[in-house]
């Protein structure tokens, strides 16, 4: 209840200041309020006892306190995601679902174009394929500076606190990281090489010494209306226990055609290396995953959906690498004003050795004997410029490895909702 009272007081203060005084800061509020009903089963088990129908909501509001064009503070709040009847029951307060999503200072160094952000904010490593970065796309404590070097070259350098936890002998220690990106932009082509290097204190959990990634994001528009994109990355971790070390690759490519008025077709491919049969003793063959990536292709298995409900996606990339996928998206199909559709058809197969799976192995850890077909049909209707109604239909048909000894039950969803953006 205290958090709810504090949030209410904050909103009243913000609105009161905006309405009654021309203070040193102008106040701008933006946000996204989503309400969604979902019928679906993403467990791949027709006999599970979970409810197939639920209603959810999530309310995000961002306040910008703008002193001038070179200085502002940002406070980003979130209420939810709330499940009607579970986290929001009759007679219950909602203080347990109120969080601060981000809060930071954003300013340019006087007389320059060098921008500095300090606080808790969203950081995305460069990516061209899919939604978000497969390595780092999350809100976290950070300090970052960026700006132009020449007309064609820019830079971004950041320091990030990824984790601070108790370890051996109850001694607290940290996992920190530094990132560097160099966007290179020329006529018809852009390339952004980057690196992320993580380093742990001596007492950090899991005996991790260091972890690093290096990659590049690429986009070519010189053959317009054809657009070509690609991502390439390699990552490795060093651990005192050899069995916990891992290193591997990620590659993705896409080609889309923007010459049609009524839709944009896209062909895409993505690959992440997997573990071989000796992974349990010799270390893994996939890129390190420290749980701060948020990447998706399609809108069901990997995430990428508009919705906020638990059945809206499987969100497989949150836990494991070790897959490849090939697919086609027909995006922004439109024959009537305000109404658009997207169709996704994709095939997914694992790249982890089948010796690593058995009864009880998480289904998001795909072996080279696991495969899935995904079909999505998503529609959006603009009621107002700020209010969109949507319907998402998703279906996944799996063919699981024999070693799992489970049925090939399908996953499905029908989700519909409203999204108010202001």
UniProtKB/TrEMBL annotation:
Domain of life: Bacteria
Alphabetized UniProt keyword annotations: Signal
Signal peptide feature range: 1-24
Name assigned to this protein: Porin
Organism: Pseudodesulfovibrio senegalensis
Top-level taxonomy: Bacteria, Pseudomonadati, Thermodesulfobacteriota, Desulfovibrionia, Desulfovibrionales
């Amino acid at each position: 209840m205290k958090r709810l009272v504090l949030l209410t007081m904050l909103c009243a203060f913000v609105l009161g200041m905006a309405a009654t005084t021309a203070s040193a800061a102008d106040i701008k509020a933006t946000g996204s309020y989503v309400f969604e009903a979902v019928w679906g089963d993403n467990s791949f088990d027709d006999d599970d006892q979970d409810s197939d129908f639920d209603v959810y909501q999530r309310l995000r509001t961002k306040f910008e306190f703008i002193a001038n064009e070179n200085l502002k503070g940002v406070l980003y709040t979130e209420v939810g995601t709330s499940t009607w009847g579970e986290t929001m029951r009759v007679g219950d307060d909602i203080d347990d679902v109120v969080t601060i999503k981000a809060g930071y200072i954003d300013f340019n160094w006087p007389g320059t174009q060098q921008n500095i952000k300090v606080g808790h904010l969203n950081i995305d490593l460069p990516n061209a394929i899919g939604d978000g970065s497969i390595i780092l796309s999350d809100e976290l404590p950070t300090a970052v500076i960026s700006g132009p070097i020449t007309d064609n070259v820019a830079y971004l350098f950041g320091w990030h606190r990824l984790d601070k936890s108790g370890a051996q002998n109850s001694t607290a220690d940290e996992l920190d990281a530094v990132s560097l990106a160099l966007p290179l932009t020329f006529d018809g082509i852009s390339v952004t090489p980057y690196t992320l290097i993580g380093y742990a204190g001596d007492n950090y959990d899991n005996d991790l010494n260091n972890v690093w990634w290096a990659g590049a994001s690429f986009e070519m528009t010189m053959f317009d209306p054809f657009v070509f994109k690609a991502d390439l990355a390699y990552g490795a971790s060093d651990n005192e226990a050899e069995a916990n070390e891992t290193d591997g690759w990620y590659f993705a490519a896409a080609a889309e055609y923007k010459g049609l008025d009524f839709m944009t077709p896209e062909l895409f491919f993505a690959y992440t290396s997997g573990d071989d049969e000796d992974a349990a003793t010799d270390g893994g063959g996939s890129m390190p995953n420290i749980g701060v990536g948020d990447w998706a292709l399609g809108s069901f298995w990997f995430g990428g959906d508009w919705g906020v409900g638990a059945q809206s996606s499987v969100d497989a990339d949150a836990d494991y690498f070790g897959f490849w996928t090939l697919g086609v998206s027909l995006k922004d199909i439109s024959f009537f004003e305000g109404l658009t559709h997207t169709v996704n058809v994709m095939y997914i197969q694992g790249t982890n050795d089948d010796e690593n799976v058995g009864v009880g192995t998480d289904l998001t850890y795909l072996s080279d004997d696991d495969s899935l077909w995904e079909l999505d049909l998503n529609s959006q209707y603009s009621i107002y410029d700020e209010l969109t109604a949507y319907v998402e239909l998703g279906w996944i048909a799996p063919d699981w490895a024999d070693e799992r000894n489970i049925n090939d039950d399908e996953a499905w969803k029908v989700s519909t909702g409203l999204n108010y953006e202001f």
